[in-house]
Every structure is written in C-alpha cells, then in structure tokens.
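User: I've been trying to design a sequence by hand for this structure and keep getting stuck. Would you show me what you'd pick, starting by listing the structure so we're on the same page?

Assistant: Good idea, let's start from the same input. This is the structure you sent:
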C-alpha cells in the first residue's frame, strides 16, 4: 500500500475542485495547495502595482523583473479547515476571489515566466508527497508522475450558478449572466493558451459532477484513492 500520495486534481473553473481537494486533504491528513490562488495572487499584485490595464495588457518586462520576489504562502487553520492565501505577508484570501481578479487572471496565468515560477514553487511544495494540489496543469505539467490524477468537470451553467451563489452569499453584486460569461471566457482562454493549456492527462480519471451530490462525489474520489494506493 502506498502512503503519502501525490494527488493532482485538474479541471474547468468553478467545478468545485478546491472544495473537494480541501476535503480530501483533510480526510487524508495531507497538505492542500490551491494553485489557482497563486495565479490570482500574482494578478492582484499586478493590479495593485499598475502592471495590468483594463484590457488585460500586462507590463511583462516590469513583472518579470520582480516575479521572483513575490512571496506567496498558504496557511490552514486546523479547527476550521479554513485556508488563507498570503501575498507578501498580507492576507489576500477574500480579495483574490473578487470578480475583478477573476476577469484578469487568465491574462496573467498565460505568461510563460509566471507559469515557470509558479510550477517550480508547486513542485517544491510536493517534494515529500502527501499532497493534494488542484489547478489546470497539475497532472500534465507540475506532477506528470502523480499517483492519482482526477479531471473534474461540470456544465458551464451549473458551474456559473455555484459561483454566483458563492459570491452573492459574500455580498457581492453580480448578475448570473456576468458570471456565466466569465466562466465561458475563462474556459476558452484556459484551453486555448499556448503554454500548459487546460487538458485532460491521458491517465486522468474523469469526474463529471453536474448531477452528483457532494457525498456521492466524495465517495467516488475515495474509491479512486484506494485504487491508487494499491497500484
Ligand atoms: O481555479 P481558479 O479559478 O481559482 O483559477 C484561477 C485562474 O488561474 C484560472 O483562470 C486559470 C488559472 N490557473 C492556471 O492557469 N493554472 C493552474 N494550475 C491553476 C489556475
């Protein structure tokens, strides 16, 4: 039986990857890494430092000269299982989830040097195993030899509804159509970017959760973990 697996969870935006990845990490006593939060944190850094304009044009040279100094860390509060993302020592967990950041993140995450820096940080975090990492390129680029690769998906409408509920619960004023447009646009950009586009790894197990309850989904994932332990 294998211990300390490396588990890669990839898939489209807003299909519940981070919720399930967090739940799985907690269940197994593993570390959880939300790689989307890292790209969001770099995007927030760009927005605050005027390195990106409203059309998504990034001042690449200026960003490249500081990319290695951007410090991104995660902490997890054990009793509540709440994860916090820190950007240069500041708690940015709520700010990186805002729609303004979601609208711009694809322009930052498609840049080669941003991706190489994030991938190398992610690989360092996974050296010891015992990790659940979610993102778009975890099974294809970050950990091509992961012990278990899961590719999650759900229909765009189901995903937009989930994100809409999440944001309105936090008091953000957004419309469903605005969210659906953002989901569709990010799907397109994530799948069509030149470097590390979102795609299913050949050896990934597909999980479409459009019609699954959280409990059903988690039971399926635990089965996958058990199988991966035996391999
Ligand atoms: O999972 P998320 O929606 O928080 O991700 C934010 C953005 O970051 C998403 O539009 C795609 C990008 N991303 C990426 O390119 N590679 C990853 N490993 C994770 C996220």
């Amino acid at each position: 039986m294998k211990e300390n697996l490396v588990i890669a969870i990839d898939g489209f935006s807003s299909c519940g990857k981070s919720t399930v990845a967090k739940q799985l990490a907690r269940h197994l006593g593993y570390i959880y890494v939300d790689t989307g939060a890292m790209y969001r944190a770099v995007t927030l850094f760009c927005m605050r430092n005027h390195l990106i304009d409203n059309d998504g044009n990034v001042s690449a040279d200026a960003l490249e000269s500081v990319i290695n100094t951007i410090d991104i860390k995660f902490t997890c509060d054990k009793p509540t299982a709440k994860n916090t993302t820190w950007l240069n020592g500041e708690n940015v967990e709520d700010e990186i989830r805002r729609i303004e950041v979601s609208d711009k993140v694809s322009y930052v995450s498609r840049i080669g040097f941003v991706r190489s820096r994030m991938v190398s940080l992610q690989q360092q975090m996974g050296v010891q195993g015992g990790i659940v990492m979610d993102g778009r390129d975890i099974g294809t680029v970050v950990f091509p030899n992961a012990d278990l690769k899961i590719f999650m998906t759900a229909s765009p409408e189901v995903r937009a509804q989930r994100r809409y509920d999440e944001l309105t619960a936090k008091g953000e004023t957004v419309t469903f159509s605005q969210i659906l447009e953002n989901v569709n646009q990010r799907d397109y950009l994530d799948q069509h970017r030149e470097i590390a586009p979102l795609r299913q790894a050949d050896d990934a197990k597909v999980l479409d959760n459009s019609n699954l309850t959280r409990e059903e989904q988690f039971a399926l994932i635990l089965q996958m973990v058990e199988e991966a332990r035996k391999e």
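That's my pick for every position. To get oriented when you compare it with your attempt: DSSP finds nine helices and eight strands in the chain. Residues 176-192 form the longest helix (17 residues).
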